[in-house]
Structure formats: structure tokens, C-alpha cells
Write a structure and sequence with these properties.
Helix content: 55-70%
Strand order of the largest sheet: 1-3-2
Order of helices and strands: EHHHHHEEH
Shape: flat
Mean pLDDT: 77
Strand content: 5-15%
Number of domains: 1
Radius of gyration: 17 Å
Low-confidence stretches: 1-8
Distance between the termini: 17 Å
Length: 117
């Protein structure tokens, strides 16, 4: 089972709360029923104008990008080190996914993890 880890070059410009749909979910700007209906007709990976303006500003902030990329690399290294310490292997990755060999079927483990969220 693969779990998502931020991809350094793609997520370096993401600002918390402005990820498409992120603020609406966290701040409950609509009822779940209305959000469900809107999600059925929206374009995939849509971005609102506030998020777009913030992303354009972040593109020009080289220090922000450098810090975000460094933080993502550190997080990936920490995750891989933690897995190794528990005897788990992963496929080397520079993307936004880390494939982990759990040594057993992933389905029951995924169900257990999802049930705890």
C-alpha cells in the first residue's frame, strides 16, 4: 500500500488552507450535502482565484520554495529511516508516493488505518 508524501517540486508552492477545497473542508464553509453536490460537477484539480493569486506570489519567493523542498526531503528521509528501523523496505522515491513492502497483504492494514481516522 502506498501512502502519499508531498512531492518537493510540485507541493513547494502549496499554502495551507488554500489547497483546492482544503479551506472549505476545514472551515466548513458549506454543508456536507452542498459540498457533495458541488464536487460531482466541479472540474478536477480546480483552483479558486485566492489560491491562484497566492500561488503566483509564492512562485516568486525563492526562499519559501527552498525551505519547502528542504522540509519535504527531511520528511521523506525521516519516514524512510522510521520504516527501516521497523524492518520495512521501501522503493526509492523522489515523487509524491512512497511504496512500502509490508510483508503481508496491504488490504487489512489499510482498512485498519482508515477505520482509525
Amino acid at each position: 500500500m502506498a501512502r502519499q508524501v508531498p512531492q518537493p517540486d510540485r507541493h513547494a508552492h502549496v499554502l495551507e488552507g488554500l489547497w483546492p477545497g482544503g479551506a472549505a473542508r476545514r472551515l466548513r464553509l458549506s454543508s456536507p450535502e452542498v459540498a457533495d453536490l458541488l464536487n460531482r460537477v466541479r472540474q478536477p484539480f480546480n483552483v479558486n482565484s485566492i489560491a491562484l493569486a497566492a500561488a503566483l506570489a509564492a512562485l516568486g519567493d525563492a526562499e519559501h520554495v527552498r525551505k519547502a523542498v528542504d522540509l519535504n526531503r527531511q520528511g521523506m528521509a525521516q519516514l524512510i529511516d522510521g520504516l527501516r528501523a521497523r524492518g520495512l523496505r521501501s522503493i526509492p522515491s523522489v515523487g509524491n508516493f512512497l511504496a512500502i513492502d509490508l510483508g503481508q497483504p496491504a488490504g487489512p492494514i489499510d482498512q485498519h488505518c482508515c477505520a482509525r481516522v
